[in-house]
């Protein structure tokens, strides 16, 4: 039943791996209603979002690639609460999706990674001006938040650290958004890591990975059979301290996604990171 407190939700990237999980989670949440399912993949146009997500009953929400008409329609449904657009699409399109949603007064909950620092700043300014909440969350799993907190604690005692992120080989961006965020959190500790011990020569370009903030290196592995995994490895004389998170099923992200949908109406600007709303 739709009522005043039901949150209208649009899922962008609805036919993708994450989009299908979000459709299921939203359909099962009593305080949400799926108002729209966007996806540009030609083979899924017009299909029922619920059936595509593997639900036993259709949701009678067809997949469409018409972003602006959908945003306009949902924004016009004034008897409902302000709507939320969940975005799990592609690094090349997420910036425009988020801008369009904010322009229509629809709050974006963004899982798509790959936004540049400049794009993040522009979206932050845009959301602030529009006084509209926007959540950008590189990783929705609670386990990753805990790993990052443990890494921040360890970084007070270790000066040497490297990050390895491992993902399925359909992933478009590297390094992962999570690895970049992890490096940023460590860099915010106000010290430079990995003081050089010798002059290094890369015999093959990229052998030492990518150099993120404050001397932290990130190594990206892409293989079929992987989902999403990350290690943060600290080293000191005579010891190694390894933190590792493994995703075995994408359902692990759903409690975080539902929490973000519920919390975003309390926000009036852009917030980055799941830890900020826990
Ligand atoms: N924050 C987090 O916790 C997580 C974030 N992610 C991120 O989410 C994003 C999506 O991941 P995933 O679901 O695995 O990717 P998929 O490729 O499985 O799904 C993306 C879907 O979006 C569609 N799409 C592409 N461009 C557009 C567009 N302009 N408008 C609407 N739909 C579009 C794709 O269609 P087509 O295939 O035809 O291009 C595809 O169906 C990635 O950036 C990934 O890194 C993933 C997991 C967790
Ligand atoms: O593409 C993925 O799968 C994932 N992307 C996010 C990232 O880039 O960090 C989150 C998680 O690692 C899964």
Would you kindly provide a brief summary of this structure?
Helices cover 31% and strands 23% of the residues.
Describe it.
The protein is α/β, with parallel strands linked by helices. It has 2 domains: 7-136 and 251-276, Rossmann fold, CATH 3.40.50.720; 142-247, Dihydrodipicolinate Reductase, domain 2. It is 31% helix and 23% strand. The chain has 8 helices and 12 strands. It has a 7-stranded parallel sheet, sandwiched between helices. β5 (107-110), α5 and β6 form a beta-alpha-beta unit. α4 packs parallel to α5 (117-130) and α6 (142-155) runs parallel beside α7 (177-187). The longest helix is centred in the middle third of the chain and has 14 residues, at 117-130. It is elongated. The structure holds NADPH dihydro-nicotinamide-adenine-dinucleotide phosphate and ligand LZUJQKHR. Residues 113, 138-139, 167, 171, 176-178, 228 line the site of ligand LZUJQKHR. NADPH dihydro-nicotinamide-adenine-dinucleotide phosphate (NDP) is lined by residues 12-13, 15-19, 38-41, 88-91, 93, 111-114, 137-140, 253. Homotetramer. GO terms for molecular function: 4-hydroxy-tetrahydrodipicolinate reductase. Its main location: cytoplasm. Residues 143-278 form the Dihydrodipicolinate reductase C-terminal domain. Residues 7-140 form the Dihydrodipicolinate reductase N-terminal domain.
């Amino acid at each position: 039943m739709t009522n005043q407190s039901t949150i209208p939700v649009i899922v962008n990237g609805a036919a993708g791996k994450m989009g299908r999980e979000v459709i299921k989670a939203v359909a099962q949440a009593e305080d949400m209603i799926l108002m729209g399912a966007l996806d540009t993949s030609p083979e899924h146009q017009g299909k029922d979002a619920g059936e595509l997500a593997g639900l036993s009953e259709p949701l009678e929400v067809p997949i469409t690639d018409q972003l602006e008409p959908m945003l306009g329609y949902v924004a016009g449904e004034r008897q409902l609460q302000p709507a939320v657009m969940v975005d799990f699409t592609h690094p090349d399109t997420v910036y425009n999706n988020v801008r369009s949603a904010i322009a229509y007064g629809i709050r974006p909950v963004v899982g798509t990674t790959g936004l540049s620092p400049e794009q993040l700043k522009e979206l932050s300014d845009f959301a602030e001006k529009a006084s509209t909440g926007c959540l950008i969350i590189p990783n929705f799993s609670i386990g990753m938040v805990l790993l990052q907190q443990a890494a921040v604690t360890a970084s007070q005692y270790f000066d040497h650290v490297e990050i390895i992120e491992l993902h399925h080989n359909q992933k478009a961006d590297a390094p992962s958004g999570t690895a970049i965020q992890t490096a940023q959190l460590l860099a915010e500790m106000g010290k430079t890591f990995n003081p050089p011990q010798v002059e290094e020569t890369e015999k093959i370009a990229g052998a030492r990975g990518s150099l993120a903030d404050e001397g932290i290196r990130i190594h990206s592995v892409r293989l079929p059979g992987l989902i999403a995994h990350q290690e943060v490895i600290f080293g000191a004389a005579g010891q190694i301290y390894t933190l590792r998170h493994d995703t075995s099923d994408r359902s692990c992200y759903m409690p975080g996604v539902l929490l973000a949908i519920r919390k975003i109406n309390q926000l009036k600007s852009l917030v980055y990171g799941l830890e900020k709303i826990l």
